[in-house]
From TrEMBL:
PANTHER family: BLR0857 PROTEIN (PTHR30037:SF3), DNA-3-METHYLADENINE GLYCOSYLASE 1 (PTHR30037). SUPFAM superfamilies: DNA-glycosylase. The lineage of its organism: Bacteria, Bacillati, Bacillota, Clostridia, Lachnospirales. InterPro entries: Adenine_glyco, DNA-3mA_glycosylase, DNA_glycosylase. Coiled coil: none annotated. This is DNA-3-methyladenine glycosylase I.
């Protein structure tokens, strides 16, 4: 992935040891070592998904459902059960989920592949119904979420728990009937989908996500003002 983007060496630092270049080595730098680098699954999640600005409405709904189910369990457990969730919840098709009735809820309560918690299952269904209303009002769930920041990713500290944005989004979501939308859950969700941008500037993901910006800021000789050293 890094090679494809042409930033092979971004996120890799050269560590000198005792000023003797023979013992120097290179280290891939990632943020969140405490949180995400415990094992390959979490590292892959950090590298490929967490914090990457996400605009796909279905994916955003999926992430919100996972955040909702996370209350009380580890993120790692959810990632391990993710494929089960996808097949149990019709690949997070919002329209299908919004139409789930009591029989489907009972079936989900019998499914050992997911987290069997009736309140959470009912919240996921109720939230899908609200998401359909948001689609009518804003065009998509994505438009709704990104309108809070006028489509910009807002830099935030990784180790924060809530902030003004998550408070505001939480308040608005609750007003609209979205459940499990406390500010802490919303903050974690906004981080995961890159509306709050929390990768450390030294992290390899920071370089990937800003590659486009860097590419746009390339040196353009035609704009060069005269008086440089070529005019000597
Ligand atoms: Zn990172």
């Amino acid at each position: 992935m890094l090679q494809k983007n042409g930033f092979r060496y971004c996120g890799i630092v050269h560590i000198p040891e005792d000023d003797d270049p023979r013992y120097a080595y290179e280290k891939v730098v990632r943020c969140g070592e405490r949180y995400y680098l415990k094992n390959e699954l979490l590292t892959r999640y950090h590298d490929e998904e967490w914090g990457k600005p996400e605009h796909d409405a279905q994916k955003l709904y999926e992430m919100f459902v996972l955040e909702l189910f996370q209350a009380g369990v580890s993120w790692e457990l959810l990632l391990r059960k993710r494929e089960n969730f996808r097949s149990a919840f019709d690949n997070f098709d919002v329209e299908k989920i919004a139409a789930y009735g009591p029989e489907k809820i009972d079936a989900l309560m019998q499914d050992p592949g997911i987290i069997r918690n009736r309140r959470k299952i009912e919240a996921a269904i109720g939230n899908a119904r609200v998401v359909l209303k948001l689609r009518e009002e804003f065009g998509s769930f994505s438009n709704y979420l990104w309108h809070f920041t006028e489509n910009r990713s807002i830099p935030e500290r990784m180790d924060a728990v809530t902030d003004q944005l998550s408070d505001d989004v939480s308040k608005d979501m609750k007003k609209r009937g979205i459940r499990f939308a406390g500010s802490v859950t919303v903050f974690s969700f906004l981080q995961a989908v890159g509306i709050l941008y929390c990768h450390d500037p030294e992290c390899l993901c920071f370089h990937r996500d800003h590659a486009e910006t860097f590419a746009q800021n390339h040196y353009q000789p035609e704009n060069r003002v005269s008086g440089g050293r070529n005019d000597r």
